[in-house]
């Protein structure tokens, strides 16, 4: 029945767009903001408390609903958690605007993908930001929910989605959140560890099919470890190899510029690279979805 639930959630993500209003993740974000105002202190202990107070009630509610209707709740929570279709639609929009030379329009889509400052990006910078974000978010917003649905159904899907959302809100290495966001950031890294390597493995398989498998393996082994994120590194390095481009370099955020390591070898990304990244994301999601269904069916 879990295999059926995962299949249903995948189909729902393809057929039905994310609700523009009353999205459960948005409600969770509001809840997290309220608890942050009440609990914020510049300490890791306060951050741990915030994490528990914010996530635990939602996780317990998911566990209770799952005990009553496991198939329905797993399908519903997976649909809510999956962001793969929305991600690829935004990627297509970026590629279309870049190809048409509409840089300003392309910039408006950048915040949908990442937190970089779009006004500081030229067409090459937008293409690189989109390519890197599509690769990383494929792991976070598609492969990780599928993995956790196969492992534990609705409760684990909800825990991962909540922690991942919380990390996006407070998991920054800056003056305000370096201590307070430590718990959310590290737990998110832990929950994403296996899904990220599953994503990188699928990227490597796709690279091998196109004759770039050895470069994907090399980039994973030699380049990924220099990335500040233990999970984004393997995902982006193998995606770069599969796409035949080089990622990394100066990365402009509202708070300043960070120097990211060079990942793989090749030319800079272009609008065509963004389209190829969308295709790679779809193939990766399809393969991971099949694996999740087969794994759940085998367990059943």
Give an overview in words.
This protein has 300 residues and is mainly alpha-helical. It has one domain (2-299). Helices cover 75% and strands 5% of the residues. It contains 13 helices and two strands. Strands 1-2 form a two-stranded antiparallel ribbon. Strand 1 and strand 2 (256-263) form a beta hairpin. Helix 1 (2-15) packs antiparallel against helix 13 and helix 5 packs antiparallel against helix 7 (123-152). The longest helix has 30 residues, at 123-152.
Work out the radius of gyration. Answer: 19 Å
The mean pLDDT is: 94
Q: Sum up the overall morphology in one term.
A: globular
Helix content: over 70%
Oligomer state of the chains in this structure: single chain
Please tally the helical runs, counting DSSP H or I stretches of 4 or more residues: 13
- Give the ordered list of helices and strands: HHHHHHHHHHHHEEH
Distance between the termini: 7 Å
Whole-number total of structural domains: 1
**Total count of strands:** 2
Largest sheet: 2 strands, antiparallel
Strand content: 5-15%
Category from helices, strands and their pairing: mainly alpha
Biggest sheet strand line-up? 1-2
Note poorly predicted spans.
none
List keywords for this structure.
single chain; 300 residues; mainly alpha; two-stranded antiparallel sheet; 13 helices
Fold topology:
Elements: H1 2-15, H2 24-39, H3 44-68, H4 70-81, H5 84-99, H6 103-113, H7 123-152, H8 154-170, H9 177-180, H10 182-209, H11 213-223, H12 232-243, E1 247-253, E2 256-263, H13 271-299
Antiparallel strand pairs: 1-2
Helix pairs in contact: 1-4, 1-13, 2-3, 2-8, 3-4, 3-8, 4-8, 5-6, 5-7, 5-13, 6-7, 7-8, 7-10, 7-12, 7-13, 8-10, 10-11, 10-12, 10-13, 11-12
């Amino acid at each position: 029945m879990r295999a059926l639930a995962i299949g249903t959630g995948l189909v729902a993500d393809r057929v039905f767009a994310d609700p523009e209003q009353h999205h459960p993740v948005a409600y969770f974000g509001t809840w997290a903001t309220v608890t942050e105002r009440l609990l914020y202190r510049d300490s890791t202990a306060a951050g741990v408390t915030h994490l528990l107070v914010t996530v635990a009630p939602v996780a317990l509610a998911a566990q209770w609903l799952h005990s009553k209707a496991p198939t329905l709740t797993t399908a519903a929570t997976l649909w809510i958690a999956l962001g793969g279709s929305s991600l690829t639609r935004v990627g297509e929009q970026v590629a279309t605007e870049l190809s048409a030379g509409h840089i300003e329009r392309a910039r408006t889509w950048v915040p949908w993908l990442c937190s970089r400052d779009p006004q500081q990006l030229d067409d090459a910078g937008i293409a690189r930001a989109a390519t890197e974000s599509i690769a990383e978010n494929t792991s976070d917003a598609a492969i990780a929910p599928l993995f956790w649905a196969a492992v534990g159904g609705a409760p684990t899907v909800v825990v991962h989605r909540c922690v991942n959302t919380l990390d996006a809100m407070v998991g920054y290495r800056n003056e305000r959140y370096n201590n307070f966001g430590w718990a959310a950031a590290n737990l998110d890294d832990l929950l994403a560890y296996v899904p990220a390597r599953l994503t990188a493995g699928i990227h490597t398989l796709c690279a091998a099919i196109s004759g770039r498998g050895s470069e994907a393996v090399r980039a994973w082994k030699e380049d990924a470890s220099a990335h500040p994120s233990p999970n984004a590194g393997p995902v982006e390095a193998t995606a770069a190899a599969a796409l035949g481009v080089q990622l990394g370099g100066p990365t402009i955020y509202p708070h300043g510029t960070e120097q990211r390591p060079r990942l793989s070898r090749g030319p800079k990304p272009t609008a065509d690279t963004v389209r190829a990244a969308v295709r790679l994301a779809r193939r990766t999601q399809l393969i991971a979805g099949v694996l999740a269904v087969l794994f759940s069916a085998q367990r059943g």
